[in-house]
Amino acid sequence: MACGAFRPVLLAGCLTAALMTATPGRSAEVVLYKLETQCSQEGAAVVNCTVEAINEGKSTRYRHHIGQTIKTVRITDDPLTMTLWKPEDKSWLSLRNASGRFSTNTVCFNDKDLCVINPNYLNSVRQDSPAKMAGRDLVMVHFGADGRIDASCYDAGCDVVKR
Questions:
Q1: What does residue 90 show for φ and ψ, rounded to 5 degrees?
Q2: Is the torsion defined by CA of 88, 92, 94, 98 positive or negative?
Q3: Are 139 and 59 in contact (CB under 8 A)?
Q4: Which of 6, 69, 124, 153 is least surrounded by CB atoms within 10 angstroms?
Q5: How do strand 47-56 and strand 30-41 relate by DSSP bridges?
Q6: Under 8 Å between Cβ of 118 and 105
Q7: What's CA 106's distance to the chain center, in Å?
Q8: 117, β-bridge pairs
Q9: pTM score, two decimals?
Q10: What DSSP line would sit under 91-131, residue for residue?
Q11: For residue range 126-152, what is the model confidence (pLDDT) as tens digits?
């Protein structure tokens, strides 16, 4: 089961050094939690949204209900990948990057294409890796053409890592 965008990365040491089918269907879903929160798209102002974390086998899907729009991010563990559901193509598109900022409880995908305030997720990252996350505010990962992590950074180190 995928535990979230960064938890598998942290546990695998990648930062310090979800689906069984091809569509985001609703059959055989196990909802891990549902969160009433705020989201933003493409750098716009935040609006109310609902996030459902859904376990499906070796992946977790995060379904973001933003008004009439639904954005679904799938995170797999082995190998760790993050993808965005493209309903117009009925396909998954690999993300370029993802970040988490603990001071604001914000997780963003593809820079600010989709951002969500999700303290459930980020608190679990801190709980799972307290020593690794002590004193950290920003953690980022960059994905290569194959969809796997090819760079990661913390705080000021993220200014050094160029996209």
A1: 50, 50
A2: positive
A3: no
A4: 69
A5: antiparallel
A6: yes
A7: 10
A8: 106
A9: 0.78
A10: EEEE-SEEEEETTTTEEEETTTTEEEE-HHHHHHHHHH-HH
A11: 888 899 889 999 999 999 988 888 888
